[in-house]
């Protein structure tokens, strides 16, 4: 007796279930953000965090917490992954805990930073 493999194409139900599982995984990866006094815009390897000034502002992004400690003029102090950083607009990225952090902009109302995973981490 010979055993033959029978090809069974994916049924519409199995196809839909696979698609929903993939979408759920993608949402879970991107939804790993929470914030207070801040807004986030995240991709897979980088997030832009916009902190409101004058409040205790923090965000959890890419598995680390980012906090606005203070701002004066075009210099800000943030805490990322437990380390305080002083940043100025236009300066090169500062490396901390496998991430690079840059200051995008500072206004009277908000501070915007970009946190990106370093390649290979």
* Shape summary: elongated
Total count of strands: 10
Q: Main β-sheet, in a few words?
A: 5 strands, antiparallel
Kindly provide the radius of gyration, computed on alpha-carbon positions and rounded to a whole number of angstroms. Answer: 21 Å
Mean pLDDT: 80
| Estimated share of beta-strand residues | over 45%
Query: Which class best fits the helix and strand makeup?
Result: alpha+beta
Roughly how many Å apart are the termini?
Answer: 53 Å
Fraction in helix: 10-25%
What's the number of helices? 1
Spans of at least 5 consecutive residues whose pLDDT stays below 50 are 19-31
SSE pattern, N- to C-terminal: HEEEEEEEEEE
Order of strands, widest sheet:
1-4-5-6-7
Could you provide a short overview of the structure?
With 121 residues, the protein is α+β, with helices and mostly antiparallel strands.
Topology of this structure?
Layout: H1 12-30, E1 34-36, E2 38-42, E3 46-52, E4 58-61, E5 64-72, E6 75-80, E7 83-88, E8 94-96, E9 99-106, E10 110-117
Q: Keywords for this structure?
A:
121 residues, 5-stranded antiparallel beta sheet, single chain, alpha+beta, 1 helix, 10 strands
Task: Describe the protein in words.
Residues 19-31 have low confidence and may be disordered. 21% of the residues are buried. The chain is α+β, with helices and mostly antiparallel strands and 121 residues long. Helices cover 16% and strands 49% of the residues. The radius of gyration is 21 Å and the shape is elongated. The chain has a five-stranded antiparallel β-sheet with strand order 1-4-5-6-7, with no helix packed on it. A five-stranded antiparallel β-sheet has the order 2-3-10-9-8, with no helix packed on it. The protein contains one helix and ten strands; from the N terminus they run αββββββββββ.
